[in-house]
Design the sequence.
């Protein structure tokens, strides 16, 4: 079938036994390496955070405490598996898998290296290269909402329910900005496939989407993806001081371990997606060494991914948590208009210079209109509260100051 | 006869997706708990996405998952959880008199119509390589869709967009109606 060959050169000579074997090996190696990476990531996060907070961190098991994650896993495995009396048993058991499986599937579209020649077959170093490419990542981040949402609901407990309502609202809000930046990248690349996105950036640092599209899509994407991951500073879902523990309060034993695993797996996968979309994936300098040149793209990819994984840890140590209304403001009022406007500008410049310039003018005009609308909305003294009582509306300090000063002038 | 015109893998894929779609659809109308019903709706949507991929409509499959499973059903669940209608039985009450009979009648009419149309008309479905190549001419999904949406069907597309905007603005206006100033302060 020609269609398969257009997706992956591995299937160009028909699907023989050796081709199926190569595909299975790719899947197994990919699964094993992401699992290994997750255990390392958990250790790395705990160790790095403890260094940043002047603590020692895990140190008992293995050199530098490397086996701590393994020990924790074994401990969780032998713990009692509790299901609350009020819980919806089926959904309660289903939810952890709904958050783990999307994380695994998303990793399968990440290109971790160049191509390899095994037994006369050309093998791409990525588990799958589907024609819908990066859309798989959007679809899976849509599905992973269910894991958090259903876990909180099925627990039959108040605080997890609040947490899951927060989580679902937050993840849907930031998905729009995420999709819009991905559209910008797809426009510039002209293809949905992650392999094409990476090869379009392979010719040096000036071709990386980070620089080619301007820095703005990268910044928007980084913020949106951090919110999508529910990681600090966007972790209102797991705000311990308000919610006891978060959506997984009622979970114990292996099911809790699955949530824990999914969270860190998502962090690694999203770092890898960031590298793929904006930093050229495995692109980088390859020294002319025979037979081992294929290893350098993988090293480049790993290096870039670790840098981002570290930056997530850094966020967690350095930034205080957003308040829930600030989080919604940032998502709807800042990021979505910004990413939409930038997408229009990039699309305009892809057609020709005059369209690009006119798009810039349009976006600036739109920005003025929006700013005016926001300030009108912020300064209003009546109305617009017929649905919800005024409990949740907490004015920011700057807005309070503005209201007081304008009243003083009158 | 079936085995002659279709390869075994495509039969397996079709049977699997059909089983997903039907199980989910039956679940939506039979399950008492609204959350469980929403979950089986997701199952149906996944089955439809698998069927799309089997017909090489990859973009449609991805959009199906992103929009329907990723956003719309999440909103359904959001409303169900927020309003707390879950687990409360209101299913036994019939708001309209004789609605079960009417529903049965509707189902019979729809199914017989679909069967009649399947027997009479010639649709572009069937073996993926046939149905794909008839429209594609080697172009990718997104290219084909984009070209037809922004050239042939431009008016319908823009009209739909305008309709959706009007609906959204209207919904916001209805939900956030102004109070009179004296009442608010």
Sequence:
């Amino acid at each position: 079938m020609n269609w398969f060959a257009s997706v992956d050169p591995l299937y160009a000579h028909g699907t023989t036994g050796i081709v199926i074997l190569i595909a299975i090996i790719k899947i197994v190696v990919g699964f094993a390496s992401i699992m290994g990476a997750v255990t390392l990531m958990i250790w790395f996060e705990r160790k790095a955070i403890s260094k940043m907070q002047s603590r020692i961190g895990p140190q008992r098991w293995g050199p530098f405490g490397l086996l701590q994650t393994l020990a924790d896993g074994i401990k969780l495995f032998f713990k009692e598996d509790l299901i609350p009396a009020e819980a919806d048993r089926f959904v309660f058991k289903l939810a952890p898998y709904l958050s783990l499986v999307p994380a695994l599937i998303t990793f399968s579209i990440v290109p971790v290296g160049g191509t390899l020649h095994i037994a006369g077959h050309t093998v791409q170093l990525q588990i799958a290269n589907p024609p819908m490419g990066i859309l798989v990542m959007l679809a899976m981040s849509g599905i992973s909402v269910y894991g958090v949402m259903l876990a909180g609901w099925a627990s039959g407990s108040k605080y997890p329910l609040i947490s899951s309502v927060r989580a679902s609202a937050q993840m849907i809000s930031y998905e729009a900005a995420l999709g819009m930046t991905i559209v910008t990248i797809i426009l510039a690349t002209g293809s949905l496939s992650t392999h094409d996105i990476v090869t379009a950036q392979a010719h040096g640092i000036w071709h990386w989407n980070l620089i080619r599209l301007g820095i703005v899509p990268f910044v928007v994407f980084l913020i949106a993806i951090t919110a999508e991951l529910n990681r600090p500073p966007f972790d209102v879902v797991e705000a311990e001081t308000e919610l006891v523990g978060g959506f997984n309060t009622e979970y114990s034993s292996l099911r809790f371990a699955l949530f824990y695993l999914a969270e860190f797996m998502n962090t690694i996968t999203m770092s890898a997606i960031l590298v793929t979309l904006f930093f050229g994936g495995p692109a980088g300098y390859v020294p002319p060494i025979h037979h081992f040149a294929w290893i350098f793209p993988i090293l480049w990819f790993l290096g870039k991914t670790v840098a981002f994984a570290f930056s997530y840890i850094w966020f967690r140590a350095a930034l205080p948590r957003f308040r829930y209304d600030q989080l919604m403001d940032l998502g709807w009022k800042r990021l979505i208009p910004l990413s939409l406007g930038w997408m229009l500008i990039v699309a305009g410049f892809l057609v020709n210079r005059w369209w690009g310039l006119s798009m810039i003018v349009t976006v600036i005009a739109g920005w003025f209109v929006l700013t005016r609308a926001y300030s009108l909305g912020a300064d209003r003294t009546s109305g617009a509260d017929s649905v919800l009582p005024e409990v949740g509306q907490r004015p920011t300090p700057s807005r309070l100051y503005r209201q007081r000063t304008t009243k003083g002038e009158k | 006869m079936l085995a002659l015109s279709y390869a075994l893998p495509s039969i397996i894929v079709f049977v699997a997706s059909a089983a997903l779609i039907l199980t989910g659809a039956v679940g939506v109308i039979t399950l008492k708990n609204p959350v469980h019903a929403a979950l089986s709706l997701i199952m149906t949507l996944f089955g439809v996405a698998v069927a799309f991929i089997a017909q090489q409509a990859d973009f449609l499959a991805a959009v199906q998952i992103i929009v329907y499973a990723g956003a719309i059903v999440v909103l359904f669940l959001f409303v169900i959880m927020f309003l707390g209608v879950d687990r409360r039985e209101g299913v036994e009450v019939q708001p309209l008199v004789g609605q079960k009979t009417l529903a049965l009648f509707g189902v019979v009419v729809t199914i017989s119509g679909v069967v009649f149309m399947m027997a009479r008309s010639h649709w572009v479905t069937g073996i993926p390589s046939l149905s794909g190549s008839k429209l594609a001419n080697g172009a990718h999904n997104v290219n084909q869709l984009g070209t037809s949406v922004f050239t042939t069907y431009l008016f319908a597309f823009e009209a739909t967009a305008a309709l959706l905007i009007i609906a959204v603005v209207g919904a916001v206006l209805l939900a956030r109606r102004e109070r009179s100033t004296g009442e608010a302060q």
About this structure: Residues 122 and 131 of chain B are 12 Å apart (CA to CA).
